[in-house]
Structures are given as C-alpha cells and as structure tokens.
Design goal:
Coenzyme F420 biosynthesis-associated protein, CHP03883_F420-assoc, 3-stranded mixed β-sheet, Lysin, Zinicin_2_N, 2 domains, Zinicin_2
Length: 375
Amino acid sequence: MSASMIDWNVAVQTGTRLVRPGPQVSHDEAREVVAELRDLSRLAHGHVREFTGMDTELDPAPATIVDRPGWIRANVDGFRVVLEPLMEQLQERRSSGPLSGGPAGVVVQAVGSRVTGAQVGVLLSYMASRVLGQYELFLPPDPDGRAPTGRLTLVAPNIVHVEQELGVDPHDFRLWVCLHEETHRAQFTGVPWLREYVQDQMTKFLLASDLDPGAMLERIRDAADVVADAFRGGEGNLIDAIQTPEQREILDRLTAVMTLAEGHGDYVMDAVGPEVVPSVQQIRSKFQGRRDGGSRLDKTIRRLLGIDLKMKQYAEGSKFVRQVVTEVGMADFNKVWGSPETLPTHAEIKEPALWIDRVVGPRAIDVPPAEANGA
C-alpha cells in the first residue's frame, strides 16, 4: 500500500504548535464554561426541534466541548475519513504518470506529503482560533466498528474570546451560538440522505481534479496570481483558481446546499432568539460587525480561503429561508429537505420565488382573498 499523500501527523503537529492560546481563564472558570455549554446545547436542541418542526432525535448526546488543539485533531480525523479513500483512488490513477516508480518518485512523494501536511496544519491553526462550533459529519468509526452519525462540537476558548471582545451577555451569547449549531445537528440527523449527499458531492469534486501535469501547473500559476492579487485587494480566491469546469459545476451544488444549511442556522438562531435570548438583537449587530471587520491581513486570508464567500452564504441563505418561511410557512419550507431534487439551486437561493414555484407550487390561487390580504 502506498504512503498517504498527506502526512496527517505533521498536520496536527504544525497546527497545534502554531495555534494561539485562547483567553486566560482559571481552571474553575473553564470547568463552568464547559458545563454551561453542555447544558445550553441540550436546551437549544429542544428549541430548535420545536421551532423548525424537523424530525430530529429526541435526546441526543450533549455537545462535545474542545479547546483549539482539540478542534484541530478532530478536523484532521474528519479529513482522514473523507480523503484517505480518495487518495488511494487518485494514486492508482497517478501510478502510470511521469513521476511514478523509481527512487525519484518516492522522494517526491515523501517530501510532498510533509509539505502538504504542514500546509494543512497552517490552515487549521488559522481556522482553530475563529470557529465557534461545528457539526462534524465525518468521524472515524467507533472501536466497536459502528459508523458514527456525527458529533456537535463547540470550541470553548473561541466562544469566551468573542463574548469578551464584543462585551455581550455570556449566557445569552452561548445559547445563541448553540441554537445555530444545534440547527446543523437537526439538518443532518433529521434529513437521512443529506450527509451522504454532501459526502458524495465532495468525493466527486475531489475526483474531478485535473491530473494532467500541464493543466495542474497552469492551475498552480493561476493560484499564485490570485494570492498576489488578493494582497493587492483583489476579489479572487484560491477555491476558484484551482477548479476544473466539472468541479465548478459540482461546487455550485455543494455551495447551494451549504448556503441553505448555514442560512437556515442563522435564521433559526435569530428567530428563536427573542423568546430565549433577551439580548439577541444587540448580539447580532455586534457579531455582524465582527464578521465584517478584521485587519487587512486577516481580510486577505479570509478572501484567499473563501471565508468571505462563506459570510456571503450566511446572508444569502438566511434571506432565502426568511423569504420562503414568510411566504409559505415553515411546513412548506421544510419541503426543501425532501430529496436532493428539492434542494434550491444556486439561482433559486438568489430568487426564492423560483424555488417556491418549482417545489411548493401555486399558492395564491388556493388562498381565499380575505386570508391572502391578512384579514
């Protein structure tokens, strides 16, 4: 069996060495934060289930609370689950290529895997101080061999850091974050096909990479231009620079589903908010300011990694959800989770009426005029 194309140990070592420590808190304070986040994730689960009407598990495990190095290790485990089977397939295809066989090929492979591992580590160290929480879709199998369904993870030091930086009520902010992340758990546990669909699209995306060395070099040159341009304030990002036309098409589908998932999370955290998070409006406006801010370098890195794209996704996605729920109600909005065919396309997210016409069907005709006018 060939060596992995990414040295995952190097990725973990690099990431955990470079990541900045979180805010200074005592052991007792840290314990209290962990206990409260676990409790609030349970509380948020009930609110999300009731508000969305989604058929989620009744009593899930509480969130797993991690520090920054813990988040890096968890993500590397997830990457391995998704990427290692793909690496095998890509290497089988590559074994007949110009760098295959012979000692030179082995050396290129060994050096390459360490460089790639270090690059993954650098990327993760940057992300590890920003991410508040996530629903981890891809986990290694349990020791008993069962495939795990996913895990809700909250990054305690980042949550504490942001609530201190914004000067918001800690209890309210923690519950607000839990509402967003619990919505992701509801999506992936309440919609049986969604996880497999996302994994399938990711696999197709990675396997659609252009393995012709000339084309790869061309894409690397494009990527270098994008990096230079980003530091001059340009709009390009690396995600766009390294794609083949087939990958762009797949990425459109992936972007649409992730925009829906993120927007739904943002919509729910704000819509449930006023009932259970008294200071929700203050939190939202301060948090939005933080999303938009940052140093020039920070903005450049965000643009390069496509994180600015993700911010746009939150806004577009929550606007889509808000408009559809306002026009047709939550029950009809939930038709979005029916099958891959009922997911909105990229165009429909920008124009929710197109999705309503396609999936929900005619509505005004069915509503008596008095009701239609809100009487």
